[in-house]
Write a sequence for this structure.
């Protein structure tokens, strides 16, 4: 896939054709009728449409990946206990787990580094200037 000649459209079309061949082979082994030309064309078209931004398959996969990453961020220690992999993502499970752990590390580092800075800003927005002034000002000596 890293080659300069990589063509996603061709690859997706080839996957569709290969899937049709495998499905027909399995159907014949079980004594069932094979897929007709219309169904095969439809299946190949569904695979080919994955490259489009508005593809239902692509949006479903995207939603499942985002769900996995959100659940990973909500864990107290993502390295020790990973959330279950959503359906259909088993093929990329290893890559997604590595990417998710790296993402969680970056998010947690940002929380530690920038948390105090944003806490003051949020405090000012939520509670007004007087609440923020109390935490920013050094304690006054007692008289």
């Amino acid at each position: 896939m890293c080659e300069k000649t990589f063509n996603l459209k061709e690859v997706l079309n080839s996957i569709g054709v290969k899937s049709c061949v495998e499905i027909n082979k399995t159907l014949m082994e079980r004594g069932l009728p094979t897929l007709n030309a219309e169904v095969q064309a439809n299946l190949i078209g569904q695979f080919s449409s994955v490259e489009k931004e508005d593809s239902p398959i692509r949006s479903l996969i995207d939603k499942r990946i985002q769900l996995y990453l959100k659940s990973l961020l909500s864990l107290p220690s993502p390295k020790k206990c990973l959330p279950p992999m959503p359906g259909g993502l088993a093929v990329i499970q290893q890559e997604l787990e590595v990417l998710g752990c790296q993402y969680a590390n970056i998010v947690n580092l940002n929380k530690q580094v920038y948390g105090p800075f944003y806490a003051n800003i949020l405090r000012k927005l939520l509670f007004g200037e007087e609440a923020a002034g109390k935490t920013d000002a050094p304690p006054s000596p007692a008289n």
